[in-house]
TrEMBL record:
It is an enzyme of class 2 (transferase). Residues 37-85 form the Galactokinase N-terminal domain. One of its GO terms (cellular component) is cytosol. Residues 345-415 form the GHMP kinase C-terminal domain. It comes from the Bacteria. Belongs to the GHMP kinase family. GalK subfamily. This is Galactokinase. One of its GO terms (biological process) is galactose metabolic process. Its EC number is 2.7.1.6. One of its GO terms (molecular function) is metal ion binding. Gene3D superfamilies: 3.30.230.10, GHMP kinase, C-terminal domain. Residues 125-220 form the GHMP kinase N-terminal domain. Keywords: ATP-binding, Carbohydrate metabolism, Galactose metabolism, Kinase, Magnesium, Metal-binding, Nucleotide-binding, Transferase.
Amino acid sequence: MSASQSSQSSQFAKQPVAPVFTPALSPAEGSRAAATLFREVFAAEPDGVWYAPGRVNIIGEHTDYNGGLALPIALPHRAHLALRRREDRTVRLVSSRDPGAVEVLDLDAVGPVGTPGEVSGWAAYVVGVAWALEHDGAGTVPGFDAALVSCVPLGGGLSSSAALEASTAVALDEVGALGLAGTVEEPDDAGRARLVTSCVRAENEVAGAPTGGMDQSASLRCRAGHALELDCRDGSVRHVPFDLASQGLSLLVIDTRAEHSLTDGQYGARRASCEKAARILGVDLLADLDPSDLATALARLADSAEPDAVELVKRTRHVVTEIERTRALTRILTSGQPLTGEVLERVGGLLDASHESLRVDYECTGVELDTAVEAARAAGAHGARMTGGGFGGSAIALVDSQDVEAVAEAVVAAYDRTGLRAPAFLDATPSAPAGRLG
């Protein structure tokens, strides 16, 4: 090959793809965008703009509906909802993703999945909250017009649906004078716990996704600079300091771009297996099992003669050990020990063990998630795991702050070698809960 040919060849050589970080709109930016969309579509001023964050779960996956522990943080990526109260029962909705399409619904006609009042698409997560608040006895909810601008990635496993529900909940709480949420600065935690219940009911019954309450709890009850230790058995919470930046660490979120859905049957099947295992073992929830008795419980399931006994053993083992990993990580974070040396190694080991349990026992990872986790570890991450419901979605990696770009580049390169679509990345700074700007 001649020198000129070699030069031409190098010009057309495949260039590495730079990591793409999905920016978060500030509350002011998001509120301004939502209010602008509202004015353009409805030719009126909104009563206000409310927002709620997506979440990323540090550890404690598929434990919420089993009554266990979870440890999420609220993201700086939020759903922003400009809303105006109406004096009738009509709801009109528009989203920046499709500003030309306005959904028009009647609150008196809304009903659960499988009824004549079934609602499809993203509107179910909005009117479902109104329906649930009324059915939970919070009070009569007025009709409303609302415009949505969200920077929480859709299908990324970062709770875009919970962010939409929570922003709707705090908006309707205020315009409906329900008196539950309080403010971001002075939240009414008991009232917010009631809003969580209604948001979960909306997602389960109106949107048709059989989720637990971890996502909605994070969006409504987290605090800036903290993780939320959530006991999903009784809904109690503890705010755990989680300031990685002061220790030279970052939590890198890897959005695999492998879209997941909580309504496609996989999530529901896992939940049904857990409920079946609990019935066989004679407990209300798998969180009721004593970890010291796990081997005996697994033997009972294995000997149960159920056709899915192997699955029941694996699902149960994941849930019980994941709760223990969550408890262990919380102990470390509340101990005041710096995240260095052996302590940092233990934290990374808990994250790694969580992913392996989700991969082998819960079988909810997949090639995109596994590739992201393996590449991050190989590039120097202290630990990495999938986060969220799985079957696509996102992963997290605990990395030294100066290595964020290098780890992201390594993940992009691994995706390229595997023939996968390039992932995106987010900055997971523990942020404030749902509220109103101003």
